[in-house]
Write a structure and sequence with these properties.
heterodimer, A: 297 residues, mainly alpha, MetI-like fold, 2 domains, two-stranded antiparallel ribbon, globular, B: 294 residues, 75% helix, 0% strand
Chain lengths: 297, 294
């Protein structure tokens, strides 16, 4: 008995550094949520500033910005969510059909490189490629097209953001599918071939059903990011000319809060996002647990 | 395996091989493009003549960077941040994951701590309260601000906990009989048995710290304190995206130096390329740990 108690003391000691770290940088900021209900004054702090109730929320909903930002966030985030499931799936299925193992391996090795490069780096290159004097305009110029300034055209910005994100992540996202593919019993394919099934039929009747649990799980877990349109990416690619279609919740909160120093208003907007995301993530975990027996720990 | 290959099947194969080539090429192209730009001369780079190979190859951009003290200062800050961040994170994660991998029978407060940890994973206070907190700690322009402000990486913690839980219990029981205490068991038995998963997380953490630019932007007061990604964001990306008229853009492009910018970008990619073979080796395990559990 005594030995068990002393072991517990050591266990507590082991947890202390991590717990303090989490306390200082995750939990203390949660206290700061009170700012959303205050007229925050940096000199008075979180405990001295005057409470104003829901004033900031009312103001928020009366702003034309709010709806624009909300619409952009949802369009970009949901498109990414869907395409980041479908495109990697299609890619994994196609790659699975490559019979030359070496070629397959090389392709697989190369395609997740962009995932490990930061949006700062990729944005600097993308801005160059799509710029006025960029590669795309050089190519279309050969066919006599006028140069387009892609990055200043608000009708092109959303597809560009969605497209480049899908491009950056498709290789990485396909890894899960490729792993699931190796789990499908090869005898099934042989049996199907003997029965006269072609590649298309095998894929449709064996591969896709084999992947269905994985697809459902990823779709459900993706729900939590409905309000995450990708701050790093948009922040590095956008400019004031495309705010009408490119400004998302996170970039707006950043500009309101840390550039224009409207601390309380930005906190209120951030809080709305946190609460909605929280509800979505928890629901998605519950659904994933019920449907796919997925457990976080 | 399949003997009777139809003509349609062969056409599909050709199409598929070409498509795979295009996709793979698209993933390598940005790298190659940055290298080509950086090795081309300034006039060619700025006028958009560089597409698939360098024009008038020279290394003057790299020579110019060699003289740029600010660039090296930022590079050094990023290296410090990445090394410190990775070491601190790994130590803390390993220590914290071990007791949390025990059952409540062995460690009573386990479940309550686990719930707090999970709560921190799915909820956060938002950018502004986080910024004000870090500011109040006096961590602006401080390397420890960059190392710690991201808080405990909870998702990685859970990966480690799950892995520790999967280790056979006999390993530890034998050590307990031999009289080893919890610290010895952790660092001499559990950690050596978990190298693949820990290596994955070392890589993820290192990549995170190297690539992170936002904290470098808001937790520093100026370019003397920027990590490399923030430096590039401010010096390279911002100039291209600012709202300018056509004339101003032309004026700017005369002053700007795309070749030099590309050289900076390429140098910032080099550490990533160096670790990439290791990332290759381990990260598939890492993703699978997070994605599927039986």
């Amino acid at each position: 008995m005594k030995k068990r108690i002393s072991t517990s003391v050591h266990y507590v000691l082991m947890i202390v550094p991590g717990f303090v770290w989490m306390l200082l940088f995750s939990i203390v900021p949660m206290v700061g949520i009170v700012m959303a209900f205050q007229d925050y004054n940096p000199r008075m702090g979180w405990f001295g500033s005057e409470f104003v109730g829901l004033e900031h929320f009312e103001y928020l909903f009366s702003m034309s910005d709010a709806w624009r930002v909300m619409r952009n966030t949802l369009i970009i985030a949901i498109s990414k969510m869907v395409l980041n499931i479908v495109v990697p799936l299609a890619f994994a299925l196609m790659l699975n059909e490559v019979r030359n193992q070496r070629y397959k391996k090389i392709v697989q090795t190369v395609v997740y490189l962009p995932h490990f490069l930061s949006w700062v780096i990729l944005a600097s290159i993308i801005l160059n490629i799509f710029g006025r004097n960029g590669v795309i305009n050089a190519i279309t110029g050969i066919f006599g097209a006028d140069p387009v300034v892609f990055m200043q055209d608000d009708s092109i910005f959303q597809p560009l953001v969605i497209g480049t994100d899908v491009w950056k992540e498709f290789g990485y996202n396909a890894v899960i599918y490729l792993a699931a593919l190796t789990g499908i019993n090869p005898n099934l394919y042989e049996a199907a071939a003997i029965d006269g099934a072609g590649r298309w039929k095998s894929m449709w009747n064996i591969t896709i059903p084999g992947l269905t649990p994985t697809i459902i799980l990823l779709a459900v877990l993706g729900l939590g990011s409905v309000l995450n349109a990708g701050f790093d990416q948009v922040f590095n690619l956008y400019n004031p000319l495309v705010y009408s279609t490119g400004d998302i919740l996170d970039t707006w909160v950043y500009r309101m809060g840390l550039v224009q120093l409207q601390f309380s208003l930005a906190t209120a907007a951030g809080l709305l996002k946190s609460v909605v995301s929280f509800v979505l993530i928890v629901s998605s975990y519950i659904i994933a647990y019920k449907v796919a027996d997925y457990r976080v720990f | 395996m399949i003997l009777n290959r139809s003509r349609g099947s062969k056409i599909f194969d050709v199409f598929n091989y070409i498509l795979m080539f295009i996709l793979a090429f698209s993933c390598l192209y940005p790298l190659w493009f940055a290298l080509c730009l950086s090795l081309s001369d300034k006039a060619a780079a700025n006028s958009g003549m560089v597409t698939v190979y360098p024009i008038n190859i020279n290394v003057s951009s790299y020579q110019e960077i060699m003289k740029d003290a600010k660039f090296f200062n930022s590079f050094w800050i990023s290296i410090q941040r990445t090394v410190l961040g990775t070491v601190v994170t790994m130590l803390v994660l390993i220590m914290m994951a071990y007791p949390l991998s025990k059952s409540t029978r062995d460690f009573k407060p386990r479940n309550i701590i686990m719930w707090i940890v999970l709560f921190c994973m799915v909820f956060n206070g938002g950018t502004v309260p986080w910024y004000i907190t870090v500011q109040n700690y006096g961590l602006i322009d401080n390397i420890w601000g960059l190392v710690l402000a991201g808080s405990l990486p909870v998702f990685n913690l859970i990966l480690v906990i799950n892995f520790f839980r999967g280790l056979p219990a006999d390993l530890e029981e034998a050590a307990v009989v031999d009289g080893a205490g919890p610290w010895r068991i952790l660092f001499q038995i559990v950690v050596p048995c978990s190298i693949p998963v820990l290596a994955t997380i070392v890589l993820f953490t290192g990549v995170y710290h190297w690539n992170e630019f936002f904290q470098g932007l808001v937790l520093t007061s100026g370019e003397a304190h920027y990590p490399l990604q923030t430096y590039i964001k401010q010096m390279v990306v911002n100039i291209q995206t600012t709202n300018l008229t056509k004339d101003q853009i032309e004026q700017m492009s005369k002053l700007s130096n795309k070749s030099l910018d590309a050289a900076k970008v390429f140098i910032a990619m080099i550490p990533m390329l160096v670790v990439y073979p290791f990332v290759q080796k381990y990260f598939v395990t890492g993703i699978m740990l997070g994605a599927v559990k039986e």
